[in-house]
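Entry 14. Ran structure prediction on the chain below.
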Amino acid sequence: MGSTHLLKPRDVLGYLGRDYIIEGVVTYKLNGKAYPLARAVDGEVVLWVEPLMDDLDDRMLVLTEVHDLDIGTPPPQQSISYRQSVFVPRWSGPAAVEIVGQVPGQTPGSREVWRYRAAGDVFLQIEGRPTGTVVLHGESVHKGMIDVLPGT
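Output, structure tokens:
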């Protein structure tokens, strides 16, 4: 298995029997930290993957865009009920967004971002983009479930 730190464009990501090509990486910088999300694509299927953040981390976050949560920005500060889970705020704020590679529909700059977490390591990420509100939903998975092969 290749290193899962710092996913980059053209890397190949194997997950649940499918191979995805990382086309781009969006990095959200807020509160003194950087949160990268790699856009991994296999045909029409798009995953957003947060790589391992350090050598002690053994889980990666895998998210997909969802359209069945009708929510605006800013989202509720207390909790959000979605798909039989209750999500509580994890972090939020104005983020400086940097993009490497191809990420259709997104531009560098600043935007508001909210990350929520529910029991069972399930997450929501809500973004206020110029084109509207985008919601990502997913879970953390053990690094052993994802293979990463460096691109050329």
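DSSP finds no helices and eleven strands in the chain. Will compare against last week's run tomorrow.
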